[in-house]
Amino acid sequence: MERGNTIQCRNFHVTLISASDLEDVRDLFEMKVYASVSFNEEPKTEKKTPKDKHGKTNPAWNHRMVYTIAEAGTLRYGIMLVIKLYCKRKFLPDIYIGQVQKPIKELFETAHPKGGSAETTMPLRKGSGVSQGELRFSYTFGEKIIVKKHSKWKTHVNTGANLLVNFALAFTGLLTTPIEVSIFHQKDDVIA
């Protein structure tokens, strides 16, 4: 429920535990696998685990990520949790291994009767078929909280600052990867 400048939300914790029996996508060298988590594949919601350096086709992370989700997002279809696995490479693009997708509504309906937490293992998919391997993760929905919406002008100022700083660093040759600048601290972006 939204009222003025506030919105009802829940903190959503997702812990990427491990993957098993992945396809070995490397001809040379060992696999170093990481996971990318997002909602509806929106880049601004993407968070990544560190790469696993030892598990090869059976990586383990035990890496927790925290999001804030609008309460309405737990009650209707439309928000999809997307977890993609990649094999890290040094000088070439990372290799896509496969992914799992699950609507937040279904995750909430499974976890809510169990006190808000659950753990699941899902097969990886690649394209329209099943890929080799499976992913294990746990998740928790916190109690309802009231979150103040960010004002639009602060969001625009942060976006402008990011563009300006990244352009200046790229122009001088000091930038190899984009950086995030925040003039106004935004505690959490709410996933609608």
From TrEMBL:
Say which domain of life the source belongs to. Answer: Eukaryota
Which CDD domains does its entry note?
C2_SRC2_like
Pfam families, alphabetically? Answer: C2
Q: Where is the C2 domain?
A: 1-117
GO BP terms: defense response
Which InterPro entries has this protein been placed in? C2_dom, C2_domain_sf, C2_SRC2/BAP
* Cited PANTHER family: C2 DOMAIN-CONTAINING PROTEIN, INGRESSION PROTEIN FIC1
Q: What is this protein called?
A: C2 domain-containing protein
Annotated source species: Escallonia rubra
Origin organism lineage: Eukaryota, Viridiplantae, Streptophyta, Embryophyta, Tracheophyta
